[in-house]
């Protein structure tokens, strides 16, 4: 690699000037014009001086020499992806083994103890009521009112425990000595079946603790009961704000393990009798059914009266995949159907059976369970002939579940018979409060074949999800923000009406709104921990002569994606390479471009991002017009085949402000016994080889030969390591930083007796299925079975030998970088540069994740910004590192210059702005070479501006000439992506050049100097305006207002009485409805929040009348975050034949600018004749705009479906299921029949 310093630079300058003068010899200077030769000379001089300074301050030659002894290794992509897949599979086996032990223990304990009486003084650790060490006030749900009633049953208080923050569990205060229990808001903890389960499951603590001791990488472990409670380890305080809507039975890990995939057709009666509360209950039933579906399920929702219609018209005659986006579309459409006419049950049932038959015959959809959910307030007869024709002659492949709505129903026999005769379940519903619990009955019915076969416990891996956050909360959080904004606008208008109504203030507020609705600067993702979970069903092992087949629940454990990512050994993949995981549905489990959050809120469809939506093929196709080559690649990956392919791709950088295009090599292989496929992507040119230390540089050997001197001596000051990489991890100690943990292990490596720990492997799991049968003989062997059989020794730490070896090699060979620059250069030269540039930071970052930096002059701390290595510690993942390596193949001598981007959302503070320059250092061995490190420097932006001004204000040979000081000429430095690095107008620095001079940028694109690269963001969020009701149609008379107030008072009083009476009934006997009830409507209230959205805006009160007096400027347009596609054009400098494109003269105002490449940089010097009028140009800006389709995005995806692979496990039938009689249950008791009917009448009349 060439190195130009001293005299070589002078010679090079003369050669370049002579070459460029030859090409421009035909041009002549014009009076009042800047000459072409002057621009060339400025570009050469600026670039050469910057290069000379960069070589000096970064000491690049010494860095190159530091890697002379390194070896160049061929990067074998196929071997790399296979090794990673094996490591991930071994980790997954550890998690599966832990879950298997929980399952076996739970089944045995339940068999022996679930019929034991619960002591009256029994106490348990209630997650909602535990005290945190630093919280005096509970931050969970709103406390229930305390009723002073004589016969109120006093329950024992929850156990108290000491909690302590634990870094392994995201610094959440926990207690690892036991588990605690979460009980959903809609479940009564002391209902007989619930408290029995809480009681017997306490024995799981021993197994939770032992699992954690044998595998310290385990995250949360849990057992979710079919009765609703969830026992989780370790114990913690459950925090949910504003309301706890968590129910483990609606989470993906529970739903997918409890039953095999299913096709579901929901039929909703919209006849004239389904009005008022019945309609509300029916909508709530459908919503709750949809909440029990996952990505492997398919669904259709139809309403029927005289005709049968899909609730979403574009989903006609089809089942849609139950993704978050499709379910959201279905739920929103439920508000639109109207009740009228007479129900045609024959047409509805026939339509549903025929649709399911088509999918069954074509092996489409879920291709496993099938079910019809009928929601109605009554049927005229049982329609036996339809079931005979479509279901019974095929051995009843379709289950029928019926939901009878309303208390005053005449006859339930026909509705119940329809469910019982078709392997389903019947439910009678009369209140919103009981809907959630009753709807979940169908999960237990679908689980019966699983329970009856007993032998197989399917292992289920979930798609990506965010810890305990319910995706439905996203709409609520956005609504709260808009309410806060609305309140602020009212108050601002009241304080100063003139200022508020001014055009300047309205423009400012409009800009703020636009910035708030951007989604690319998604800071704050850290509050969500993305993970997948592995789970297995837990069966009730009692024999079928009891005529039950009960699912006890589901056991599982979480696997944070960060743990999987650490196993992908990114240092082996290298810069601009990455690994990602794809599910059987083609969705991303893990990918560096997965962006699940906008403005600290989860996106509505964050867990169903397809791989084809993040891997962008470099072609000119329009949005969602995916090439056959890309879809073929996707199919092979989903099918878990092993292969590789080279493709031209484009990808964005720097928060979607820059773009790059490259040829990349894809390698993929399936992860066995899982629905996942691992893909590794490597750049085709510099990704073929990697740097490795020589074999003689073993860490431990070096320590021993150096008389036990630790390698930490090479890491003394101003250094950092990649915070996300797994160098060494201690499972029993905590450290304040990754650097502290690394130093600890470097000390241990230097001591005698050190051994590199082996990778943990799953212990042998004792599969004693015969043990279940011994329960039937009454043999007393349960104690032995419940004992922990795992005796695997616990590793207290784990280290990546290869990464530690590379890091120590880099640290030892670059230890000299800590010396001051003045120690390796003449004092005169150092002082000259320091005087010119002021405060400078020189940095070095290596392929092993080590980053070093030095400040000149030395300074203990920068009061303006964080230290370099603390602000940019991610080494090869930093933008300046990635761009420098790419630039090496454009010009191996050049540096990449950039300035912080200046946008409306993040304006640039130019007084504190810095310029960052980076350069890739490659190490070569014959024809092979690989990136070893990146060097660079930072200095104040104002210094570069002064330097640029000094050079562009000078003339050749001290002649008089026109320079950039002239008012009629504007001069810029623009980087290779079109962003202004330096401008005479400081407010333009960091902005996109096409925004400042769209006419000039357009000509540069036309001349193919820049290429406009079309990028589509398929993970975008748009903001649809909410529809609000208009109450002005009612005449607001004082008498009408009095009527409303009276009705509200009466209905509220009656509701309060009924709540007390119902609670008393639950607490005293719980004899009705078999097991338990749902005493609270908190979840229902939240679910219906959209309808009651801002009650002051939807209810006909005087407030709305007063509101109309406010000016329209005060009211905001209320919106709803909605998944959408956004497109933009990002720009990239085209280096091919660049001189010929740039060496063009100024043609008056037809081409009023010069453009020249600044030597050894990624920048163009653009000199514009400002005296020429600016032409109007339609510039494709970098701002993203929504792609307008002719239909909604869910409809478009449905019309153009992508390939998916169906799950392998399907258990849908069992011969013994016919022995089960239980197929339905009634509604709540009628002890308060009169009061409930009367309050319902008053409330309905009021509404």
TrEMBL record:
Main localisation: membrane
SUPFAM superfamilies from the UniProt entry: vWA-like
Domain VWFA span(s) in chain numbering: 263-450
Keywords in alphabetical order: Calcium, Calcium channel, Calcium transport, Disulfide bond, Glycoprotein, Ion channel, Ion transport, Membrane, Metal-binding, Signal, Transmembrane, Transmembrane helix, Transport, Voltage-gated channel
Compartments, as annotated in UniProt: Membrane
Domain of life of the source: Eukaryota
Biased composition (Basic and acidic residues): 761-787
Annotated region (Disordered), positions in chain: 757-792
InterPro entries found in the cross-reference section: Ca_channel_alpha-2/delta (IPR051173), VDCC_a2/dsu (IPR013680), VWA_N (IPR013608), VWF_A (IPR002035), vWFA_dom_sf (IPR036465)
Cellular component terms per the entry's GO annotation: voltage-gated calcium channel complex
Residues making up the signal peptide according to the UniProt record: 1-24
Membrane topology category: Single-pass type I membrane protein
Molecular function per GO: metal ion binding; voltage-gated calcium channel activity
Name of the featured protein: VWFA domain-containing protein
Organism: Bombyx mori
């Amino acid at each position: 690699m060439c190195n130009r310093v001293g005299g070589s630079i002078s010679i090079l300058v003369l050669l370049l000037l002579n070459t460029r003068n030859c090409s421009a010899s035909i041009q002549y200077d014009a009076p009042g014009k800047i000459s072409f030769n002057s621009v060339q000379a400025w570009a050469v001089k600026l670039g050469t001086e910057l290069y000379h300074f960069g070589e000096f301050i970064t000491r690049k030659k010494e860095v190159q020499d530091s890697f002379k002894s390194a070896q160049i290794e061929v990067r074998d992509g196929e071997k790399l992806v296979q090794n990673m897949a094996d490591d991930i599979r071994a980790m997954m086996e550890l998690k599966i083994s832990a879950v298997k032990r929980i399952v076996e223990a739970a089944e045995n304990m339940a068999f022996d103890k679930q019929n034991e009486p619960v002591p009256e003084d029994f106490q348990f650790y209630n997650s909602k009521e535990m005290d945190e060490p630093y919280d005096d006030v509970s931050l969970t749900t709103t406390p229930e009112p305390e009723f002073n009633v004589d016969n109120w049953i006093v329950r024992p208080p929850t156990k108290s425990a000491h909690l302590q923050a634990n870094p392994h569990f995201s610094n959440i205060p926990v207690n690892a000595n036991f588990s605690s229990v979460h009980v959903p808001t809609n479940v009564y903890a002391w209902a007989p079946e619930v408290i029995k389960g809480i009681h017997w499951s306490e024995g799981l603590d021993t197994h939770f603790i032992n699992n954690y001791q044998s595998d310290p990488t385990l995250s949360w472990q849990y057992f979710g009961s079919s009765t609703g409670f969830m026992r989780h380890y370790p114990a913690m305080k459950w925090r949910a704000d504003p309301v706890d809507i968590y129910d483990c039975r609606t989470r993906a890990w529970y739903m997918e393990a409890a039953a095999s995939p299913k096709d579901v057709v929901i039929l909703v009666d919209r006849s004239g009798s389904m009005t008022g509360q019945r309609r509300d209950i029916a909508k709530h039933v459908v919503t709750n059914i949809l909440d029990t579906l996952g990505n492997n399920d398919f669904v259709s929702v139809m309403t029927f009266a005289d005709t049968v219609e899909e609730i979403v018209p574009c989903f006609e005659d089809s089942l849609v995949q139950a993704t978050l986006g499709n379910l959201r579309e279905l739920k929103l459409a439920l508000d639109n159907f109207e009740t009228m006419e007479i129900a045609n049950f024959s047409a509805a049932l026939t339509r549903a059976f025929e649709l399911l038959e088509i999918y069954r015959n074509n092996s489409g959809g879920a291709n496993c369970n099938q079910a019809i959910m009928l929601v109605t307030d009554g049927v005229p007869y049982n329609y036996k002939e339809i079931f005979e024709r479509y279901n019974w002659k095929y051995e009843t492949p379709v289950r029928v579940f019926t939901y009878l709505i309303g208390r005053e129903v005449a006859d339930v026999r026909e509705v119940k018979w329809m469910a019982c005769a078709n392997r389903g379940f019947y439910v009678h519903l009369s209140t919103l409060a009981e809907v959630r619990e009753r709807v979940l009955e169908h999960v237990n019915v679908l689980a019966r074949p699983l329970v009856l076969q007993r032998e197989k416990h399917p292992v289920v891996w979930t798609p990506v999800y965010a810890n305990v956050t319910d995706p439905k909360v996203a709409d609520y959080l956005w609504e709260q923000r808009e309410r806060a904004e609305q309140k602020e606008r009212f108050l601002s208008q009241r304080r100063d009406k003139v200022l508020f109504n001014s055009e300047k203030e309205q423009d400012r507020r409009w800009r703020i709104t636009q910035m708030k609705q951007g989604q690319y600067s998604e800071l704050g993702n850290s509050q969500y921990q993305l993970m997948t979970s592995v789970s297995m069903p837990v069966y009730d092992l009692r024999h079928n002569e009891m005529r039950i087949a009960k699912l006890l629940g589901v056991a599982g454990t979480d696997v944070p994606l960060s743990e999987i990512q650490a196993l992908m050994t990114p240092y082996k993949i290298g810069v601009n390479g990455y690994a990602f995981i794809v599910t059987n549905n083609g969705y991303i489990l893990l990918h560096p471009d997965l962006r699940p959050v906008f403005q600290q809120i989860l996106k509505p469809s964050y867990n169903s991002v397809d791989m084809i939506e993040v891997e962008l093929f470099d072609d000119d196709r329009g949005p969602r017009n995916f090439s056959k080559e890309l879809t073929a690649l996707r199919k092979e990956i989903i099918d878990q085949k092993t292969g590789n392919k080279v493709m031209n791709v484009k990808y964005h950088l720097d928060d979607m402000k820059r773009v790059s295009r490259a040829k990349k090599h894809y390698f993929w292989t399936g992860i066995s016994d899982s629905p996942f496929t691992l893909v590794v992507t490597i750049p085709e040119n510099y990704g073929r080889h990697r740097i490795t230390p020589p074999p003689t540089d073993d860490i431990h050997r070096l320590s021993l030969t150096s008389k036990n001197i630790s390698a930490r001596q090479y890491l003394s000051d101003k250094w950092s390591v990649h915070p996300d990489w797994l160098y060494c991890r201690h499972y029993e100690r905590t450290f304040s930083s990754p650097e502290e943990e690394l130093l600890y292990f470097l000390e241990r490596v230097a001591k005698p007796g050190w051994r590199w720990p082996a990778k943990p492997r799953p212990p042998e799991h004792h599969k004693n299925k015969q043990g279940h049968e011994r329960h039937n003989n009454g043999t007393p062997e349960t104690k032995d079975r419940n004992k922990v059989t795992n005796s695997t020794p616990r590793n207290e730490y784990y280290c990546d030998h290869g990464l530690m070896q590379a890091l120590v090699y880099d640290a030892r060979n670059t230890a000299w970088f800590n010396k001051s620059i003045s120690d390796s250069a003449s004092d005169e030269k150092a002082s000259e540069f320091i005087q010119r540039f002021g405060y400078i930071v020189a940095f070095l970052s290596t392929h092993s994740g080590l980053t070093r930096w030095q400040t000149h002059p030395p300074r203990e701390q920068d009061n303006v910004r964080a230290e370099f290595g603390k602000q940019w510690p991610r080494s090869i993942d930093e933008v300046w590192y990635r761009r420098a390596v790419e630039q090496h193949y454009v010009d191996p001598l050049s540096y990449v210059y950039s300035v912080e981007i200046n946008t409306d959302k993040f304006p640039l503070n130019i007084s504190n702005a810095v310029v960052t320059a980076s350069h890739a250092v490659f190490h070569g061995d014959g024809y092979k070479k690989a990136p070893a490190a990146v060097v660079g420097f930072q200095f104040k932006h104002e210094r570069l501006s002064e330097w640029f001004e000094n050079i562009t204000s000078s003339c050749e040979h001290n002649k008089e000439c026109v320079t950039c000081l002239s008012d009629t000429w504007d001069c810029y430095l623009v980087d290779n992506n079109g962003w202004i690095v330096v401008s005479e107008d400081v407010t333009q620095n960091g902005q996109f050049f096409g925004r400042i001079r769209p006419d000039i940028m357009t000509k540069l694109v036309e001349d193919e100097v820049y290429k406009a690269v079309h990028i589509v963001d398929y993970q975008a969020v748009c903001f649809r305006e909410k529809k609000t009701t208009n109450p002005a149609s009612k005449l607001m008379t004082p008498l009408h207002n009095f009527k409303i107030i009276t009705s509200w008072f009466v209905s509220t009083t009656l509701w309060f009485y009924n709540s007390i009476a119902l609670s008393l009934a639950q607490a005293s006997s719980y004899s009705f409805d078999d097991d338990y009830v749902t005493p609270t409507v908190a979840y229902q209230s939240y679910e219906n929040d959209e309808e009651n959205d801002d009650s002051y805006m939807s209810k006909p009160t005087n407030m709305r009348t007063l509101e109309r007096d406010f000016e329209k400027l005060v009211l905001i347009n209320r919106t709803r975050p909605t998944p959408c596609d956004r497109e933009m054009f990002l720009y990239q400098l085209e280096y091919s034949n660049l001189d010929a494109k740039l060496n063009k003269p100024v043609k008056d105002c037809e081409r009023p600018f010069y453009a020249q490449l600044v030597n050894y940089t990624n920048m163009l010097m653009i000199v514009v004749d400002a005296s020429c009028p600016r032409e109007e140009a339609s510039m494709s800006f970098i701002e993203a705009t929504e792609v307008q389709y002719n239909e909604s995005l869910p409809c478009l995806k449905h019309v153009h479906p992508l390939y998916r692979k169906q799950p392998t496990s399907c258990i849908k039938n069992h011969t013994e299921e016919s022995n089960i009689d239980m197929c339905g249950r009634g509604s709540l008791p009628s002890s308060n029949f009169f009061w409930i009917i009367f309050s319902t009448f008053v409330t309905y009349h009021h509404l």
